Every structure is written in C-alpha cells, then in structure tokens.
Amino acid sequence: MSAFLAMGGYGFYVWTAFAIFFIVLLIDTLAPLARRRRHLREIRARIARQANRRRPGTPARNESNA
Amino acid sequence: MTSPSPLLEARALCFSRQDEPVFGPVDFALHGGEVALVEGDNGSGKTTLMRVLTGMLHAGEGEVLLDGAPFALDTMAGAVVFLGHHLGLKFDLSARENLAVSAGLYGVRAGTSITAVLGDVGLAGFEDEPVRRLSAGQKKRAALARLLLLPARVWLLDEPYANLDREGIALVNRLLRDHAARGGAALVTSHGAVTFAGDEPRRIRLHA
Amino acid sequence: MTSPSPLLEARALCFSRQDEPVFGPVDFALHGGEVALVEGDNGSGKTTLMRVLTGMLHAGEGEVLLDGAPFALDTMAGAVVFLGHHLGLKFDLSARENLAVSAGLYGVRAGTSITAVLGDVGLAGFEDEPVRRLSAGQKKRAALARLLLLPARVWLLDEPYANLDREGIALVNRLLRDHAARGGAALVTSHGAVTFAGDEPRRIRLHA
Amino acid sequence: MTPGSTPAACAALLRRDLTLAWRRRGDIALPVLYAVIVVTLFPFALGPEPQLLQRIAGGVVFVTVLLAMLLSLDGLFRPDIDDGSMEQLMLAPQPLALLVGMKILAHWLTAALPLVVVAPVLASMLHLPPPAIVVLVVALAVATPLLSLLGAVLVALAAGAKRSGMLLALMLLPLCVPVVIFAAGAVAAAQDGLPWIAPIAWLGAGLALAVVLAPLACAAALRIAMDT
Amino acid sequence: MTPGSTPAACAALLRRDLTLAWRRRGDIALPVLYAVIVVTLFPFALGPEPQLLQRIAGGVVFVTVLLAMLLSLDGLFRPDIDDGSMEQLMLAPQPLALLVGMKILAHWLTAALPLVVVAPVLASMLHLPPPAIVVLVVALAVATPLLSLLGAVLVALAAGAKRSGMLLALMLLPLCVPVVIFAAGAVAAAQDGLPWIAPIAWLGAGLALAVVLAPLACAAALRIAMDT
Amino acid sequence: MANWVPLWLHRLGSPPTFYRFAGAVYPWALGLAFVLGAIALYGGLVVAPADYQQGDAYRIIFIHVPSAWMSLFIYGVMTLAAFIALVWRIKLAETVAMASAPIGAAFTAITLATGSLWGKPMWGTWWTWDARLTSELVLLFIYLGIIGLCHAFEDRRQGARAAAFLVLVGAVNVPIVHFSVNWWNTLHQGATIRLLGPSHMAASMVWPLLTMMGATKFYYIASLFSRVRTELLAAEGGKAWVRELAVAGVAGGKA
Ligand code: HEM
Ligand SMILES: Nc1ncnc2c1ncn2[C@@H]1O[C@H](COP(=O)(O)OP(=O)(O)OP(=O)(O)O)[C@@H](O)[C@H]1O
Ligand SMILES: Nc1ncnc2c1ncn2[C@@H]1O[C@H](COP(=O)(O)OP(=O)(O)OP(=O)(O)O)[C@@H](O)[C@H]1O
Ligand SMILES: [Mg+2]
Ligand SMILES: [Mg+2]
User: Ligand 2 pocket, B202 CB below 6 A?
Assistant: First the structure.
C-alpha cells in the first residue's frame, strides 16, 4: 500500500495532480447548485416585494387613447 | 396635413426586462402635425418606451413603423432626433461646435443657421462658452437648439421640461407648435406637473 | 419656536468666478421652523449659492453663520444635509444599504427607521433593488428618504422637484412642512414652475 | 461638401474628435509621458547594466507602448456613450461602421502616433542599437494601428458593461500576443542581423484585414452595447 | 456602536466600500489578471530563456504590481465625487481624514492584497528562486500599503482636474521610484545571497510616516478639489 | 418520423421543457461520469504498469490528457453555440455558450496545473514558455475574458451576446493549441494517441485513458445541464413556471 502511495518516488506530483483534478471538478459541480438555491431564494423575495409594490386601485394594464 | 400612413406608429409594443413587463401593449399612430404627450408616474416606463422607439432597445413583442415601413436603425436616414436624460453634448466644446457636429452628421434644415437657432433658444452671448460652464438649464437649451437645426421630422423628447425655468417651458411649447405646423410629429414625456400649452395634445398614459 | 440666533444666516454673501460675479450680495436669516425658496432663472446662480452655503465653495466676500457661529466644514457636526443635482447614492447598493451608510455617518433621528422612511417616500417594495435599476424619479425618492432619516436641522435642497411626478411633488411639500414643524429650517431652489404648497414661503430671488 | 452627406459627416466627426483631443492636449502628452516613465522604471528595478538593458530593450518598449495604448483605449467610446452622443451617431443617416472608423482613426492619430514618434528615444535610453531602432519604428507603425483596431472592437464589446477599464486589459492582451510576438520578433531578428521582413509582412496582412473588418465588428458590438 | 459615533461611521464606510467591491467582485479579480497577463507578455516580447527571465523577474513583478495598482487607484475617490457621495462625507460630523483613511484601507484590501497573494505565482513563472520569492512577498507587503497611501494623496490632488487617470500615473510614478528601488533592491540582494533587511526597514519607516500623514494630506487635497 | 424530430426539438427549446429535461438527464450523466471515472482510475492507477522511461509519474496522463482534450472540445462547442446565438438569436444557444465557459476554464486550469506537476519531474521545471504551454495559458485567459465580459453586463442576454462575439474572436487560438507541437518544435509531447490507426502506447495504458475521456465527456454534459438549469431560472425569473417552482421549493423543500 505504501508503495502504491509512493508512486515510485513521484507520489507528491501524482497525488497533487489527482487532488487538483477532483477538487476543481467538485467546486465546478457545487457552484451551480449553490447558485440555483440563491436564485430561488431571490425569486421568492422578489415575489414578496412585488406583492408590496402594486398600489391598490392601479390597473395592471396600460391604456392609450390613440 | 395628415398623410395616409402615419409618421410613427407603434403596434402592440411591449417591453420586458428579465421577463418582467415594463410596459404592456402600447398602440399609437402619430401623423405629421401631431404632438403626443406620454404621461406616467415615476417608474412607469416612459424613458424605456422612448429608447425602444429609437431602436436602441429591442422590443420583446410588437413593432414600430416609421413612415409605414418597419423601423431599423440602418434605414431610417436621420428621420428621428432623440433628446434624452443625457443631452449628447460634449462638455469641452462650445454650443456652436456641438451643433456643427450634428449639422455634419444629419444635415441642416433649409433656412436656418447655427447662430440663429442658438439665439432662438436664448443662448445668445453663450455660443462660444464651453458647455461645461453652462448651468443645468442652459445646457438643456443648447440641446434643444439641435431640434431646431436638424431636418428630422420626428422628435422624441424625454422630459424636455426638466431643469427649465418658466420661460424655458414656454420655449419648448413654442418649438413643438412650430414643428407641428411644419408637418412634423413629436412624442414628449412628462409627469404632467407642467402644463402643456397650446391645444390639448394627444395623451398616452403608462401605469406603473 | 423662533430661536434667538437664526439657524442659518448669510451676510452680504457674494461669489465670483474668474472675477465675474455669479450672484450679488445675498442676505438672509433662516430661523428654526422656516422654509425659504431660492428662485431664479436658468443660470442665475442657485446651484452655486447652495454649494457656497455647504462650505464646498469658498465665498469671495460675506459670511455664512450657522447657529450664530461662523461656518466651517469641520465644526458643523452634521447639522446640515445637502441634496444636489447629484444624489449621492451608490448605484450598486440598494436604497436600504445606501441609507444604512448615511445613518452610520450622521446618526439617526429618534423614532424612525430605514424601512419606515423608505415606505414614507413611496419605495415600499423597492428597498432591496439596486439603485441602478430604479427610474429617475425613484432615485430621487431614495435620496429624499435620507432627509427623513438623519437628525440634521438644516436642509439645503437643490431642485428637489425635478424628475418627480405630481405625487412626488406633494411628498416633498409634506416633508418640508413636517421638518418646519419640528423646528428645522430648509432652503429650497426652484424655477418657480412648480407651485410650492402650504403657507406662502419666504422667497429669495437671484437674477441672472 | 453639403452638410449631411457622408463625407461631410466623416469630416465633422473627425474634426470634432481632433478638436476635443486638442482641447485636452495635456492628455495627448500623457501616454507618452507614461511610456517614458515606465521605461525609466526598468533600469531602477533591474539595475543599470547596459548589456541586460539592451537585451530587453525591444520587448520592454513594445510592452510599454501596448500598455500606454491600453490606457487610452478605454476613452474611445465610453465618453460618447455616457453623454448621449453615441445615440446621436447611431440615429444619424450614415453608415455606423464608417463613423466608428473615423473615431478609430482619430484615436490612432492622437494616442498612438505620438508613441511611435517617441519610441526611438525610449529605445535608445535602453541602449538599443540604431539599426534595430529603425526596425522598431517600422514594426510599431504597422502594429499600433492593428492594436487600435483590435482594441476598438473589444472596447465596443465592453462598452455596455458596468465598468470596463480592467476587463478590457483582460480581453485585449491575449489577442495582442501574436502582434507582440511578431513585432518584437522582427526587432530581435534585426538586432541579431537576421532578416526581419517576414514578421512585418504578416503584421501588414493582419492590418489590411483588420481595417476592413474591425469597423464593421465595432458597429455590431456597439449596437449590442446600447441595448440595455 | 451607536450610529453617528466615530467608530460606527468608520465601520459603515468600510462596510460600504467592501460591499461595493464585493458587488463588483469581478473587479477585484481584474488587477490580478492584469498583472498575470502583463507578466506573461514579457516572455513573449523577450523570448523564453530562463536565465534572462530569472534575472529580471523581481523587477518585472514590481513594475507590474505598481501598474496594476495604478489602474485601480483612479477609482478611489472619483466615483464618490461624481455621484455626490463625497459631499456627504465632507458634511458628516466625523473627521474627514479618518473617513478617507478607511477608504484607503478598503482600497488596499480589495486592490493590493490580492496582488500580494498572487505575486509568488507570477515570480515563479519567471523562475525566481523560492528564497527570493519569500523576500519578494515581504517587500510587497510593506511596499503596497505605502503605494496605496501615496497614490491616494495624488488621486485626491488630481481629483479636481477634469480627467485624472493619466495625470495620476505621471505624478505617482516618480514618487514610486524610491519605493521600487528599495523593494527591488531587497529582492535582488536576496537573490545574490546578501542581507536584505535594511531596505525593507527603510520601507517600513516610510510606511509608518505615511500612515499618519497621508490621510491628513488627502483630506486637505479633497477639500481643494471640491472647491470648483 | 420525419415530422416529430423537429417538433420535439422545438419543444425542447422551450425553457420549462428544457429545464425538466435537463433535470432528468443530470443525475444519469453525473452517475455515468462517476462510474466511468472510477473504472478509469482503477485501470490507470492499479492495472496499468509503470512506464519504462517515466516510472509512475506518467500516470498523470490519465487526467492531464482528457482534461486537455476537454479544454479544446468545450471551446469548440462554445464556438458553435455562440455562432448560433448571434445569427439566430436563440436563447438556449446563448445559455449553452455561457454555461460552457466556466467548465472549459476549469478543465484548462486542471490541464495547466497537472501539466506543471508533470513537467517538474520530467523536464525539471514547473513552467517553460513553450508554444503549447503558452497557447494553453492564453486559452485560459480567453476563457476568463469571456466569463468576465459576460458578467460585466447588467442585462444577462446582452452580456451573453457580447461574450458570444468574443468567443468567435478567440476561436483562432484553438487550432494554435492543437497544432503548436507540429508547427514549432517544442518540449511538449506530440500526438501519441490516434483514434484512427495504431497508437504509440500499450493497450493497457490506452483503455483507461479512453475511459477517462468518456467520463469527462459525461461530466461535461452533467455540469453543463446543471448550469443551464440555473441560468434558465435566473433569466426567466419573471415567468410563471419559475415562480411556481420557487414557491413550490419552499413548500416541498426541494425544487
Ligand atoms: C503546464 C504544462 C503543460 C500544458 C499546459 C500541457 C497542455 C497540453 C494540451 C493542451 C494537450 C492537448 C493537445 C491536443 O489535444 O491537441 C496536451 C496533451 C498531452 N500532454 Fe501536455 N501539457 C503540459 C505538460 C505536459 C508534460 C510535462 C507532459 C509529459 C511529459 C505532457 C504530456 C502530454 C501528452 C502525452 C499529451 C497527449 C498528446 C496527444 O496525444 O495529443 N504534457 N498537453
Ligand atoms: N437599467 C435598468 N435595469 C432594470 N430595471 C430598470 C432599469 N431602468 C429602469 N428600470 C425599471 O423599469 C421601470 C421603468 O423605468 P423608466 O426609467 O422607463 O421609468 P420612467 O417612466 O422614465 O420614470 P421617471 O419618471 O422616474 O424617469 C422602473 O420600475 C425601473 O425600476
Ligand atoms: N463650473 C463652472 N465654471 C464656470 N462657470 C460656471 C460653472 N458652473 C456654472 N457656471 C456659470 O455660473 C452661472 C450660474 O450657474 P448655476 O449652475 O449656479 O445656475 P443655476 O441657477 O443653478 O441654473 P439652473 O436653473 O439652470 O440649474 C451660469 O451663468 C453658468 O454659466
Ligand atoms: Mg425617465
Ligand atoms: Mg442648478
């Protein structure tokens, strides 16, 4: 096992390379998931805010006399 | 004076920002000799509408027609002038030099000159002052002088009354009346706080 | 409610730019509970007067007194708030965050909160929107909210009515009335095109 | 030239940009001074050995000229967009690509030409031998318009962005790499007494292509930028 | 901390500037990328010989960091002046010098610190040996706050001018020469195995002085700048 | 048969449908990537023998080469999507182009890092200014420029279109990376593996490499779909289907 880990003296290089590979891809996998959670939270906040905005009595559509 | 196909026409024009509608379907047709007032509260989408009409912003749905033909930035050949919140003046040049550039780009309406239009808007004596040194209202007047100088038939004016004194407001109204009399069309935004002189104009209301 | 020494006083105040006088000697005294309107045409020097009163520009002659003491930027301890053509809002922050910074710098008037003042100026629902996304009038309202939040006794407002709709103008008038009732003083510039509600205010006229 | 015709429009725009540059003539001098100062910093940072300086002279002058141009590029369209002039250019009855081409020409005349003129002085401060200096000037005369044109496209792309200064550097520098390699390569070849025509010819071919395509690309990019 | 007290004001301002930087977090990364790209340009311009690159590594990294900081310095007070925030800072019941100091601190944290962090990578791309890299980082850690402080004074002075970017470069670079000489000298000494403490100590002394004086000078310069 | 394909494509192009489709594909693609990756690692680290010249250090090849290929492949996909986005203004193409950029940048960064880690024992240096290494570095800058430009805009679509433009401009670099070993003589290895014709490598080394290549492809699909989903949510924030999703997310605890 320790021979496997030593990689014929190149253990440091090989294992660092593999570690970088996995860490970078892990970050790449998690980033969009976290961002999606944030977006959903923001959309909910926006829905709440827009409910606040619409003043009572104003029609929702535009009109023009042309 | 009304020509068969309107100068500027909007059909079911909508605009959305990030899928939230800014203004709903707007329809209007503006013939030569007509001035229309776009009214709406703060944030109702007046500036946005103006920018869509100039072709800077792409409307989500609906279309804008100029002289009966679908509107495109490349083909409208200087028929439209736009005066927005930003006046399009170079602060290091004088009013006269600024107008000379516009004249080179758009051409000059027959029978006017740069000195004459600057006098008309009340900037006589300030022609060669760098625009930087003019007050807020004087800058606005310099921008209004462009309208007089250029041969465009359609004017799009976003809050032309802001920052002007009483006399300046009267000036804008006079410019609009003369323009209409020449057969031009104009679309003007305002909050309705200043009274628009002359015969009651057409109104287009936007709601927030 | 009138205190013995006026809150803000100008004595024979003159300002010249390159030896050309911008405005002649101006004298006034503003006691607590008073609102004065500075009127003048475009280019008459209203903005310049405001900047002299805040201490940003140094007056050529004459003096400004605050609470009876000569005025200096270092010593006036947040007694003055200024609202100019530039609103002093960070466009990348929301209205709430902008107000939080002002509160940190100047402190907060007893009995108010940021959410409350934003609601008062009609920005409920827009508190967390970046200021960049607000329309011209909504930005102005966000700037007005600062006035309500801070404990300053003297307000200097340069064209607070510009870009506001009718309701917004009424809002400014209400703010001014409440401020005066609390014993504050305010100096407001305007072209006189919008009517100032309430009892007839003091007027200071500048001539171009 | 009747006002409103295309030649008149080009002339008016060119005159405007040159007048503006002249009103701020301090600013024309500034890239030059910037380049002078950056080049003088190197002997301080590296020590004053002539052989070393001579060895790096060509490269340092190129990088410096590139950075100095970069600083001025940001001001190519930004002021026009901020003060509303760009809207007027777009609404004018003229081909936008041509107007944009005029703006790029004005930029090259005011921002790059002075650098080309001063480059021999900078190079001789770093002990570059005279024959190589001639090649340096030739290389710069071909490379700087190319950089102006490439830069203009990227500036136009970034013009709609919230803030563009640094972003521009990020986008421009990778694209400049070939230009720098060819131009500095020509100087290095001349310094070693090798033929240096080939890299310059490549640059010239690139320039010919860019003169045609870049204004069109710029105009398209500006249309995208104004769409907010 | 009650709102309106001096610590609260400092905290509010610092928080504001850091939030703004975070909202534009792309911009924090940009000076770093700029530095990376400028450093990579040198091998293209000079050719890839490791001995040559190693010889100039320290100097190039310093000049690059300096230029990257320079680009970001322009944004230190200009946005606040343009949007009216500066007037509010001046009218606030707090010592202006202290508020300005907070702004400088925020600027250093967001613009210079990332450069210090990335400098070892840049240096090793140019083959600087590891012991010299340690000295490089130490020298940068002392030199960059000094540059931030000096730069802030000059930005404040130039703020009244119509356009300040280039002017700033011009005024800052000569002042930076001593800083560059000391800092690059320390690295060169380390590279040659000589003692390198003395130049760093000088820089430290300069920093101590600047921390006290620069905010005061800045505040005075800003008062002058606003007086137009 | 001939009819339902375009119809299906059209349906797929509509955001809510694509959102659901991508959501369904995502776990499968990620799972497949994981399984193939595990097999390839077993083959590469345990089964394959040490190289007679490089010893065990050569095992970096099993991540270096697939990542390097992906860094170029993804740029190719991005170029195609950017072209479609600019010419036909198709929203989904914009989204695919922009979602690909960070993944491509990640693979480019991995290539650079693992190459450096391999270069130290093999060439005695972390970095040289060799044509392939340098052009790969430039590729990273181009990726970062695209990401930076895209995010520098207030409006998503506008940013996407400006960045798509830059994608096309930067595409010239891709052939340079690939052919640099042929055009300039460099330290870096030439093509050792050919899909067509005999390779220069032992079969026990080739199969884990090809398996890893498959794993990275599936990983790309998974990551791309995950990002596209996120983008769609952000871009369509005002539409009813997103709002329902957001509100349902609170109620159901999962979106
Ligand atoms: C920072 C250093 C390095 C970088 C940036 C780099 C980059 C690349 C790139 C971009 C490719 C893909 C080329 C293509 O598909 O067209 C590649 C392939 C390859 N690299 Fe590297 N590399 C580096 C170091 C190394 C080292 C040190 C070795 C081994 C001694 C190596 C061995 C290989 C091999 C064997 C291939 C496959 C070649 C093929 O079959 O096409 N690389 N590298
Ligand atoms: N750049 C932007 N990004 C996102 N939303 C915006 C942007 N500009 C404006 N908005 C929003 O769009 C709506 C319409 O804005 P617009 O500027 O068109 O209003 P307006 O009618 O001109 O108002 P005002 O009278 O205050 O100038 C507002 O609710 C505003 O919040
Ligand atoms: N920076 C400056 N340099 C030189 N002169 C200036 C400068 N700013 C304003 N002026 C001049 O000073 C005079 C007063 O300008 P000021 O801006 O105070 O007018 P104002 O009353 O605010 O006008 P407005 O109603 O148009 O805003 C004007 O004649 C103007 O031309
Ligand atoms: Mg508006
Ligand atoms: Mg004024």
Answer: no
Across chain C, which has 208 residues, the per-10-residue mean pLDDT values are 71 83 84 85 85 83 83 73 86 90 89 90 85 86 92 89 83 90 88 58 69
Confidence of residue D161 (pLDDT cuts 50, 70, 90): confident
Our CA angle for C104, C109, C114, nearest 5°, is 65
Residue E9, pLDDT > 60, answer: yes
Q: Kindly report the protein residue whose alpha carbon is nearest to atom 2 of ligand 3.
A: B133
F237 contacts B18? CB cut-off 8 A: yes
Could you give the CA distance from residue C67 to residue C30 in angstroms, rounded to a whole number?
Answer: 10
B97's enclosing H/E stretch is: helix B95-106
If you average pLDDT over residues D81-108, what whole number do you get?
A: 88
- The answer to whether residue A44 neighbours chain F at the CB level (below 8 Å) is yes
In this structure, are residues F74 and F109 in contact, taking their beta carbons and an 8 Å threshold? no
Closest Cα partner for F19 from F229, F246, F244?
Answer: F229
Chain C contact set for B167 (CB, 8 A): 41
Chain F partners of E33 at a C-beta cutoff of 8 Å?
141, 144, 148
Which pLDDT belongs to residue F149?
A: 85
- In the chain, the amino acid numbered D99 is L
ipTM above 0.90, yes or no: no
The alpha carbon torsion through E131, E132, E134, E136 (nearest 10 deg) reads 180
Is residue E13 less than 8 Å (CB to CB) from chain C?
yes
Closest approach of F81 to chain B, Cα-based (Å) = 21
Q: Which residues pair with B36 in a beta bridge?
A: B187, B202
Residue D192 has pLDDT above 60, yes or no: yes
Residue A34 contacts F where some CB pair is shorter than 8 Å: no
For residues F144-158, one letter each, b for 16 or more C-beta atoms within 10 angstroms of the residue's C-beta and e for the rest, the string is bbbbbbbbbbeebbb
Site to probe by mutation for ligand 1, drawn from F189, F194, F195, F199 as the one with most ligand atoms within 8 Å of Cβ, is F189
pLDDT at D100 over 70: yes
Interhelix angle F156-170/F91-123, nearest 10 degrees: 50
Segment D110-135 shows an average pLDDT of: 89
Nearest CA, atom 31, ligand 3: B134
pLDDT at residue D165 in the model:
58
Burial class (CB in 10 A: 0-12, 13-18, 19+), C177: middle
Q: Please report which helix (H) or strand (E) contains residue D169, including its range.
A: helix D165-191
Q: Spell out the domains of chain C, with CATH numbers in brackets.
A: 8-205 (3.40.50.300)
CA distance B86 to D146: 33
Cα four-point dihedral sign F109, F111, F117, F121: negative
